[in-house]
Write a structure and sequence with these properties.
Length: 455
């Protein structure tokens, strides 16, 4: 399901919002998108203040802003997404190569980056950014790598790329003696975005994980030997150089300002795109940013917890920036499995800061049910697990950040499962269960009420 097919399907379901009035790519579009966060929004007349000759562009936001969108793209129920991801992660399928694709219908050499509707999101940002960009490169030892990177436009042919230290793209770039060929894809199908958000073992291509989720044909680039999804809207072909430029500040996932750093410069040699191309803009700190960051980590937490307990589901929560907090649902079989699940969850996602473990009768996707479990089943003296000074996420502004070192933070796990024993003796599970009332045909009562009001 490419961008155009998703837009049609979302419109048919009444999800899609349209903005036809002119909107500027500098600050205005991001403000409107933020106000409409959670819904896919198609802006049909985006004005580009950075290129006087560029006509109005079409920009889509909110593509990945709801679990229902991913479920639609994957053809499954929202609570089954984790299992689809886990299956594709465990069994990648080689993505096929095709001779041509829509992404190369229009070719511009060298192309002009200022003609693309990169957005400036916040006044404090360093400049206009591409935020839904998937960078594809080839590691000399491990093959194709596809991953998200924010890209600051420096001028009409250069970008500054944030490469997180010791991750795949950074490692491949440091191995290269000269320029490293790269392809940057913008406007990709949702299943490809999901796969690119995952962190498989070295030597496993994210594009093969994408193909295991849904068919993902690849086409060869025009200027170098890289393969890209044929259904991409835009492809920027170029080279990661060893020149460095200032990148940042930038408002990131946690909606706080990430610092400026010296980062590699990418030089663009060719831009290709569809004739009817739609630019995908991901709102930093918005719901689609959070879901694309967090959901792909749910399978790794699930796998780790499943080693010590019967894990039923995992939800990385938007309130925790979809990165720092998770709820794990288990089918508890022994008194100590809640504690074991806490420790396993931290192993499954190293950036996790707080985790809540709940029983199988608690919906991990319902914050009210999770809070109810904490209120009625949790006692800090027996079920709070505190881990001090642990390796953590650089995105947490409250963590300890030392240049050149892994960020560190205290971590907390809450075992909000039904206690199997207490200081007063064995617990009675029935005392901890929410008792349902009998089901009734509500419509019958409402009809009676209306009839009474009429008389």
């Amino acid at each position: 399901m490419n961008l155009h097919e998703f837009i049609a399907a979302a419109a048919a379901r009444g999800w899609l919002l349209y903005v036809s009035r002119p909107v500027s790519a500098e600050l205005e579009l991001a403000a409107v998108a933020h106000a409409l966060d959670g819904r896919p929004v198609l802006f049909s007349a985006v004005a580009n203040p950075y290129h006087s000759a560029a006509g109005p562009a079409r920009v889509l936001t909110g593509l990945a802003a709801d679990r229902r969108h991913f479920a639609l793209a994957l053809g499954c129920a929202p609570d089954q997404i984790l299992f689809r991801l886990a299956e594709a992660f465990a069994r990648p399928q080689p993505a096929p190569q095709v001779a041509q694709g829509p992404c190369q219908e229009v070719i511009a050499r060298p192309g002009d980056l200022t003609a693309l509707p990169f957005l400036k999101h916040w006044p404090d940002d360093a400049g206009p950014y591409a935020t839904a960009a998937i960078v594809i490169l080839r590691d000399p030892d491990f093959g194709l790598n596809a991953s998200f990177h924010r890209l600051l436009r420096l001028d009409d042919h250069r970008l500054a790329a944030r490469l997180v230290e010791r991750r795949g793209a950074d490692t491949a770039w440091r191995k290269a003696a000269g320029d490293l060929p790269v392809a940057i894809c913008i406007g990709l199908p949702l299943h490809v975005l999901l796969a690119a958000s995952m962190a498989p073992a070295a030597g496993v291509s994210e594009l093969d994980i994408a193909h295991a989720l849904r068919p993902t044909p690849l086409v060869r680039c025009l200027t170098h030997d890289l393969l890209v999804p044929a259904e991409a809207e835009f492809v920027l072909e170029g080279r990661i150089t060893h020149e460095l430029a200032e990148e940042g500040p930038f408002v990131d996932l946690t909606e706080t300002i990430d610092i400026a750093r010296r980062q590699p410069v990418i030089e663009i040699d060719c831009i290709t795109h569809r004739r009817d191309a739609i630019y995908h803009a991901l709102l930093p700190g918005g719901l689609e940013h959070k879901l694309l960051m967090g959901m792909p980590k749910e399978p790794s937490i699930y796998a780790a917890v499943n080693e010590v307990a019967r894990c039923r589901n995992v939800c990385i929560t938007p309130g925790g920036a979809s990165w720092l907090h998770a709820v794990v649902q288990i089918d508890k079989q022994a008194a100590d499995e809640g504690e074991k699940a806490v420790l396993a969850a931290f192993r499954g996602h190293g950036s996790l800061k707080h985790v809540v473990i709940v029983d199988k009768d608690i919906d991990p996707f319902d914050p009210a049910q999770v809070e109810w479990a904490i209120a009625t089943r949790f006692q800090a003296g027996r079920a709070l697990h505190l881990l001090r000074d642990q390796p953590s996420s650089s995105l947490d502004p409250s963590a300890t950040h030392t240049p050149g070192q892994k960020s560190r933070s205290d971590k907390m796990g809450l075992d909000a499962t039904i206690p199997w024993d207490t200081a007063a003796g064995p617990a009675h599970p029935d005392h901890f269960r929410r008792l349902p009332l009998p089901e009734v045909a509500v419509g019958e009562y409402l009809e009676v009420q209306r009839a009474t009001q009429e008389t």
